Here is the input.
Amino acid sequence: MVRPLVESLLGQPPPLRFQFFDGSTLGTDGGPGTVHIRSTDALRRLVWAPGELGLARAYVTGDVDFEGDMFAVLRALQEASPPDIRFLGPTGTAAALKAARRLGALGPPLPPPPDEARPAGWRHSIRRDAASVSHHYDVGNDFYRLVLGPSLTYSCARFVDEHSDLEQAQAAKVELICKKLGLHDRRGLRLLDVGCGWGTMAMHAATRHGAEVVGITVSREQADLARRRVARAGLGGTVEIRVQDYRLVRDEMFDAISSIGMLEHVGRARQDHYFQTLRAVLRPGGRLLNHAISSPGSSRPGRRSLISRYVFPDAELIDVGETVLAMERAGFEVRDIESLREHYVRTLRAWVANLEGRWDEAVAMVGEPRARVWRVYMVGCANRFAMGAMAVHQVLGVVLDHAGRSDMPPTRGAWEASP
Here is the structure.
């Protein structure tokens, strides 16, 4: 009885197995796994919110589950689904409604799970950005430590060889950024770390290269832990962690700026202002390293997507070409661009392994709905990076001095050399 509804929603025979609450099945046993539809509530959510949002709500509440290699299962679902199953056409809609009525799945819409975000106020205002960041980051530092590992670095790692583990790759990433910024050439340079997270980049720059660092974040939980980590490392005299929006950094100057995983929260409409703001606090000869997820043609996740409702409210992925132009308009000479797309696939797989390996602990920390959100979003993102639908780029910009000098090394060789 459930088959007609699922067939209508997918639009074609599925390349994997569906197991329904009434005992019926659909699809092939030779696929990558099984999708379990555990109740009529799952179908009700899909009827009222066809597509990604309905499926996300059903998965978060446990009414839908996946068995097998989740990376492969989600990839198969994505490839099997029509481009937009909200628009089935008259025949498909009639078939779906008829099947839903016979199953008792046409009641009023169910309330969304409590972890769903609906930010209010002007998009990318200081207040709304703070609320959106809090929704994602202020879920518990212990949970992030479990997922991310001891480095507490929530951005793409850089695996220098096939034998590197996650911690080594994260250390290699921040060291490369330090070298691109020229921090290894002269001790005592002043660094602004925008979106500093739990302080890993700031601490590395201070410890390894003698930098004086100001790290800013609008997440109070991140700042609290970052300050404790700085104090434990004996870096209180060289690293300052602030709860501060980038728009409020004024009347001080820096030799270098790192922006790691920050631009996604800024928004395409404010990108020019972002780089102009950072340019205004850089001394002549200063460098900016922007490390951000990008999307060909730029994209803003739809209001009905998992990312917008549960993970990164208001996030936007900007085409790296647009970012380069925005940096140039702000007065930077762009000197280097590096893609780390494949590295993010490996990074996300490591995070998923950490979460799944300590699943019961994660659920005890944040609850099962939130843990399920993080699992499905990281798996989905890994697939999108693997498919080339998303990438991550490091873009290095330089403020030329009065004589037009950049003080850049002649080749990348200096960055790759061992410390």
Summary: The two ends are 65 Å apart (CA to CA).
